[in-house]
Amino acid sequence: LTNTAQAGPLRTVHDLLVLVLSSSAYPVDWPRLYAALGRVPTFDVEGYLDERVGVWDFVSQQLLPLLPLSVRVGPRGLYAITADFSSTVADTIGTLRAGVDCFRSGPVQYERRLRDLTGSIVVEAGNNGGQPASTVEVSPSSMVQGHRARLAQQSSLAGQILSRVQQSPTHQGQTTQTIKAPWLAGDTGAHYVATQRLAFQSAQLRTVRYEMRPEYVELEVGDLVRLIDFELSIDGPAYLSTLQIDRSRVVGTFTLYDPVER
Q: What is the value of pTM for the model shown?
């Protein structure tokens, strides 16, 4: 497989995803797709397949679960969404003010309570004769406080990588989470995947439901807005995670990712 410029073989997850979507029968919202891909570091993939497999099957089953990306269908076609702790109000597409633009229709829900990761995360990357070519291990005890905070601010939808995670008990109160990533080449991608999980376990997720004014019907799932709700002490970036349109009612659920400095 060669890239779109025919300048050489496809080597990155980004190249493969663009190839798959460009070959789809669905239209593609290219600006939103590239905007999402731009927020994820580029990693090389290596390996070979000794049997026929669909490119989309390979990308969706082997590669996407390692990344903070998901593919959706919107009014303008296929696009990817990603959410990460480094987002700021400068990245938002607009502002929603509770009591003015939207009206809260339920209490705050906590999808994940704060908790410490007492074990470690191991990413087995590459393939060398049936064994991992390299192994990267990340644990809170291996990082200074400031480094952990910075990693948390670079994370995003890290829970999606758990499709290939095995949890095995070590000593009391600790676990080792092993993520198998045979297609990742080198330690850079493996370290990113590991820190994604670490950051996710070092943060809480809040969801709040609002009924919005009709003009906000143009919002799409994955959009990042500045949400202001002084009653909840909220003033920051929030992702639209669900959207329901019922006649003239536009109801959205917004997710806020709260990194925690330890």
A: 0.66
